[in-house]
Amino acid sequence: MDMILVKSKSGMRMVDRNGKKGFLELDEPAWAPDENFRACSGCNTSFDLFKRKHHCRRCGGVFCGSCATEKVIPMRLRFIDPVRMCGKCQKIAKWENDYFNNYQKKLKAGEELNVETEKGETGLGTVSLGGDGGLLQITFQSGPVVPILMDEVTSFRVIEEGSNGVHMLSIDSFGGRNLKLAKTERAETVVFLNGLRKALRMSAKPDHQRTGPSNNDAT
Question: How much is the pTM?
Answer without folding.
Answer: 0.83
